[in-house]
Amino acid sequence: MNQAPNIESRLVSFNGRYLDGITKETTRALANSSPDILLVQEVTASMIDTLEMTFGSYLPYRLLHAHSKYGMAAYSRYPIQLDTALCAPGINKSWHYVQVFEVCPPNIPSFRIAHLRLPSPSAIATSSRGWMTQMNYQQQLRQIYWQLLTEVLKVLPTKPTLFIGDFNTYPGSPLYHAFTSTHYDAAAGSPYFFQGTLGTDLPWIPPLLRVDWAWLPNSMYSSDFQTLTIPKSDHKAISFLLQQ
User: Taking the CB of the first residue and of the last residue of the chain, which one, N or C, has fewer CB atoms within 10 A?
Assistant: First the structure.
């Protein structure tokens, strides 16, 4: 029985938080980099409009999902559907949630991308009107992250999943603790890979995905683009080797 050939695939994770707006030059550079999947995090309504008028016109890409409040616009060459959006019970949805995308490349097993929007200590302290003053920030964040990840992992027990989010994952951080507090511990051979947009990563590797890091090409930083301050760590390209 013949196996389908390995397929090289490329995902670009792009954070819109540092942009005053997404320009035609930006989206043209993204399209020229030929990603198979483009995820734009923390998009605004105006960014979605610009993306749709520019990047959305590049076939075979199409807009798969967009949410203008701390949300994500997703474009892909592959069929993708939004599985679900999850929140931890009893916690303000505007602080954090998860969007789960099912990615279905041709002739090979599907996998999932989970986009996590998580709160920072300052955001929680500001929004909570002081309820965190009675508890250590780190302890409270660990509890919140653990609740959220527990909900996520309930629906992702069998699929290899790439977690992408806007948060720090240094060892000992609340999020690192939350992950290693679940039964999906890296030391136990978890089938998960985790990447934070702040340039840190943890070694959870999906069995079907070999991940290689690369910066976006220099064309991203054209003369029209250099006036914007955009940390390179927020513009990462992920190369997948998808296997039968």
Answer: N
Tokens of 235: 């513009």
CA 204 to chain centre: 15
61 and 76 in contact (C-beta within 8 Å)?
yes
**Which residues, listed in sequence order, are joined to residue 114 by a DSSP beta bridge?**
100, 163
234 located within any domain? no
Which has the closest alpha carbon to 19: 9, 10, 11, 30? 30
> How many independent structural domains does the chain possess?
1
Q: Are 194 and 173 in contact (CB under 8 A)?
A: no
| 232 falls within a domain | no
CATH of the domain at 186: 3.60.10
Extended beta strands in 44-129, E state? 63-65, 71-76, 80-86, 97-103, 111-117
Q: Tell me: the pLDDT tens digits for 135-177?
A: 565 566 666 666 666 666 666 555 666 666 544 444 455 555 5
Tracing tokens 């994770």 back to the chain, one arrives at 13
Res. 80 pLDDT band, cuts 50 70 90:
confident
Statement: the pTM of the whole predicted model exceeds 0.70: no
Does the CA dihedral 22-84-35-63 come out positive or negative? negative
Question: 51: domain range?
Answer: 7-227
Does residue 107 belong to any structural domain of this protein? Answer: yes
More confident residue, 187 or 43: 43
Considering the domain boundaries, does residue 236 fall inside one? no
How many angstroms separate the Cα of 110 from the Cα of each of 33, 123, 160, 185, 207?
A: 23, 35, 8, 23, 12
Phi-psi region of 75 (alpha: psi -120 to 50; beta: other; left: phi over 0): beta
Confidence check: pLDDT of 186 > 70: no
